[in-house]
Amino acid sequence: MPPATTNLKTSNMRPDFVPDHVPERAIRPLLIAGAHGTLGRAVERICHTRGLVTVALGRAELDVTSPVSAEKVLDAVRPWAVVNTAGYVRVDAAEADAGLCFSENATGPSVLATACAARNLPFLTFSSDLVFDGEQDDPYTESSKPNPLNVYGRSKLAAEQRVLAVHPQALVVRTSAFFSSWDEYNFVHFAVQAARRGEQFEAADDVRISPTFVPDLVNTSLDLLLDDAAGIWHVTNHGSCTWAELARMAIERAGLSPDLVVPRPMAHFDLPAARPRQSVLVSEKGIVLHTLEHALDRCVREMEHHPIGV
Predict the structure, then answer these.
(1) Phi then psi for 57, rounded to 5 degrees?
(2) pLDDT in tens, 71-109
(3) Where does the record place the RmlD-like substrate binding domain (predicted)?
């Protein structure tokens, strides 16, 4: 029986009482900050599948940049752990909005981490491959030296440093270019939908990444949290490709013509934020996910069987 329907007689217990033989996660919820974003919704969805009770809050209920708000919510919800999925995600817009980007991406996680540390609570937050500059030829591991090229990357690096300074047992998961069938705001969805309309799809062919399937990312991150993992971990699907190659693979799996993909250099898009020429992530800590090909098979199959908005 999942924890949400547990029949334990708790009505007469003290609020802070947890029986020795019952894990805290069977009684207390997992608090998700940033409930309305792609990752927040995915964490809530997968926790439900796994029988983990959650309380998912958006900006209106939990201002992650406010210590008062964070402390008030943690004391009211009494979670066994906190997962932060809130943040500023507009990489190019951040170049002209550094203050808000740093507030949401660096201050927010450090505020939550501080509140969690004071209550001895596990804390998970997500970071990015954009903390690296792409100058090395080999993939980046957890111990590689960061050197971000843009405001967004600098905000994520600041978050990593601040979080681990105030909460050394916190879990920081770096990931890259995530995609899923659960929302329409990701590169794979854009590519497949363009191909279904018979339109050409331009994509960079000189930037190498390690795309990540959201269900694999979330399940592995939750496993690490449940195992009391700490520090920085790289979580991506096994394999790497350029953006153009990713578009071709996704479109081909949808039964459409990969010739609709038009490879372009990244400079062609004239984006405000600089990107590393390669930001492939691998783990030196033994994390192995499904291959990228396997992940794309599942994603495109889900897109066909459960189209968004239908």
Answers:
(1) -120, 140
(2) 999 999 999 999 999 999 999 999 999 999 999 999 999
(3) 30-285
Q: What pLDDT was estimated at residue 18?
A: 47
Enzyme catalytic residues: 152
Check residue 107 and give its pLDDT. 98
Residue range 61-80, pLDDT digits in tens: 999 999 999 999 999 999 99
Which residues touch 180 (CB under 8 Å, ≥6 apart)?
38, 42, 186, 213, 214, 215, 299
CA–CA distance, 120 with 167 (Å, rounded to integer)? 9
Residue 123: which residues within 8 A CB-CB, separation 6 or more? Answer: 81, 82, 84, 112, 113, 116, 117, 163, 167, 169, 170, 171
Residue 177 is classified by DSSP as S
Confirm if 111 and 150 have CB atoms less than 8 A apart. Answer: no
What pLDDT, on a 0 to 100 scale, did the predictor assign at position 267?
96
Closest by CA position to 272, among listed 165, 150, 118, 158: 150
- List, in sequence order, every beta strand (DSSP E) within 111-200: 123-128, 171-175, 178-179
Q: Identify the residue whose tokens are 């090909």.
A: 293
- Residue 140 per-residue DSSP state: B
According to DSSP, the residues that pair with 178 across neighbouring strands are 212
Q: Which residues contact 277 (CB under 8 A, 6 or more apart)?
A: 134, 135, 206, 207, 208, 266
User: Which amino acid would we find at residue 28?
Assistant: R
User: How do the domains of the chain map onto residue ranges?
Assistant: 19-305
Residue ranges of the chain with per-residue pLDDT less than 70? 1-26, 306-310
| DSSP E strands, 210-266 | 212-213, 231-234, 241-242, 261-264
Q: Identify the CATH number of the domain defined by range 19-305.
A: 3.40.50.720
User: Any idea how long the chain is?
Assistant: 310
Contacts of 52 (CB under 8 A, 6+ apart): 3, 25, 30, 222
